[in-house]
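Quick start: read one record
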Amino acid sequence: MWSVREGLEKFIQSLELTPGQREEVNGQHTRLRECLRQRLGTTDFLSGSYSRNTAIRPLHDIDVFVVLGESSPGALTADAALKRLRQALHAEWPNKTLGILQQHSVHVGFSKSGLEFDVVPAFKVPGREAYQVPERETGQWVLSNPTLHQRLSTAANERSGKKLKPLLKVVKHWRRRRPELPVRSFHLEVLSYGAFTSAPKDYLEGLEKLFAHLAQGVMGPCPDPAGLGPPVDARMKLSQKESARQVLSSAARQVRLAREASVSEPAQAHARLKELFGDFYRDRG
């Protein structure tokens, strides 16, 4: 049987993409981006959790940010921008089902690789470190900048002695097993930026502290970390926040009890962590 700390480290490693998976992802997103450059004359970059290195296995959507121009959208409506992207993708892959129009993006999947992408059209705001992205529900263009999110994520990870991102992947796996939990993965990620001012002693201590921090933080406001768009928690009701707080507090307690039993009762500690994380967590090779 592994020690509890070793079991947690092995679990974190199991959430990472394999070299083969990364190669497949890189090949697919490169082809998609090159297609849009050729057809629309755009520039682009990766955004979302994959670009911030907080994505986990099994990999779901990969976000691609496509800059249609260096000025304001002008006469192009939010809906028209999304349809323009969808048509370009369909022209490249005519046998594929039309991409799905979402709130800010076009969703397209590739059956052979199993990879799915959310492609976001945007316009660079002149003279500002900001982009305008469509909001299909309202028909408006809203401000965003994923590159600022990446910088804040990296800075928070550095403050934690590079332990935040591995721990955040654990939290994301935990969140994925609870689809009814009324708090988005990105919301938890943004809240995590304030969890550490220095490196925790180890991952077990860090995980307890992170869950406790999230439980407290979810009750408060969560503005866009880039200071541009709407609050991350804009659609959360107080009752939803309280529900999320209770579940996060329970997870923090479970990790605390596992930590306290990790030396004297390792089997019991492993059982608590397995209850939280499911079969991905193992106590032996």
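The chain has a mean pLDDT of 94.
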